[in-house]
Amino acid sequence: MGDIELNTEDKLEYTFFPDDSGYVRFKVRASNDAHIALSTTAAECDPMYEIFIGGWANQRSVIRKNRTKPDVAEMPTPNILHPGEFRSFWVRWDNNTISCGCENNSQPFISWTDTEYVPIRYVGVCTGWGATGTWIISKGAPLPGYGAGGGDYSSNTCSSCWVSASGGSVPPHAFVGGKDGSGEPLYVVRCNFEGGLIPGKLVSSHGTAYVPWGGNENSVAEYEVLCEFGGRWVACSEGNIPPNALTAGQSEDGEPLYVGRVMHDGCITIGKVQQSHGCCYIPYGGAEMNFQQYEILVS
Questions:
Q1: Complete DSSP assignment for 29-60
Q2: Can you give the residue range of the structural domain that contains 184?
Q3: What are the percentages of helix, strand and coil residues in the chain, rounded to 5?
Q4: pLDDT tens across 47-92, in order?
Q5: At residue 180, does pLDDT exceed 80?
Q6: N or C: which end of the chain has fewer CB within 10 A?
Q7: Number of folded domains in the chain?
Q8: What is the pLDDT of residue 139?
Q9: 282 and 227 belong to one structural domain
Q10: Cα–Cα distance measured from residue 241 to residue 296, given in angstroms and rounded to the nearest whole number
Q11: What 8-state DSSP symbol labels residue 117?
Q12: What is the mean pLDDT of residues 8-19?
C-alpha cells in the first residue's frame, strides 16, 4: 500500500485513517509534539491511546490513555524531533501492549501494557503546542524483519515463531507479554529445564530468563523468545484452556503447557498454565507462585 503524505497544523486535531494491522511506520518533520492516536473509531473517543513524541519542548515522550492524566508511561527523549529533517519511527500495538521506537531500532524507547483489550481500528496524527508537522506514513508496511521467514501461524504450536537467544538478548519483534514493577517489558520465552520445555519470562536487564518449576523462580541463561506473533490474551481460570491456546511446551511428564500471565504486586508476570494442576504458575520473587485466575495466550 502506498505512503500517505500529509501536513498537520498547530491545532491538536487528529487526522484519522483506518489501520488494524497492529503496526505503522512513519516519518515526521516537526519541532516538537508529534502526536499519534490509536482508536476504535475515526474520532477521539474512549477507549483511546495517545503517544506524544517530543512533548514538553521536545524533551519527553509519553503514552496516555483516554486523554487523561497521569500518563501511563513517560520517557526522557531530548531532541528526538527536528524541524528541518524527517525523523523515522514505528508504533506497534498488540496483546494490549503499546510501543514506539525509532526506525532502525527494534527495541521501543517507550512501551506500556494495558490490562484492558482495546481493538484498534484507526490511527490518527496531529501536531500542536506551537508545532506544525509534515508526515510520510507507510500505512500497512511491515516493520523491518516483521514476517521474515514466512512463519506459519495455522498451528497453535507456532513453532516457527520461537527464536533462540541467550544472556538477556532480545530478538527483533519479540512478543511483549508483561511488565515488571519498574515498567520494564517482559517477553514471552520458553526454556529447556529439568526435562521439560517450560514457558516463562525474559527480563532483559537481568541478562536471563526465568521459569517456574519445583516451587522456585529458576534463572535460565539460554532460551527461546516468542517473536512475530499476532495472538491475544483471554481471561481464564482453574485450568480451563480456550480454543487456539498457544501450546508453548510440555512438562517433564509430557503434559502440554500454555503461556499464562497474572497481575501480581503491580507487575504483569508471565508463566505457565498446567491444565491438570488447575492454575497458572509464575516465577516471581524467587518463588513459583500459583493462581487460579489468569490470562492465557491464544493464536
A1: E-SS-EEEEEESSSSS-SSEEEEEEEHHHHTE
A2: 159-298
A3: 5, 55, 40
A4: 999 999 999 999 999 999 999 988 899 999 999 999 999 999 999 8
A5: yes
A6: N
A7: 2
A8: 60
A9: yes
A10: 8
A11: -
A12: 94
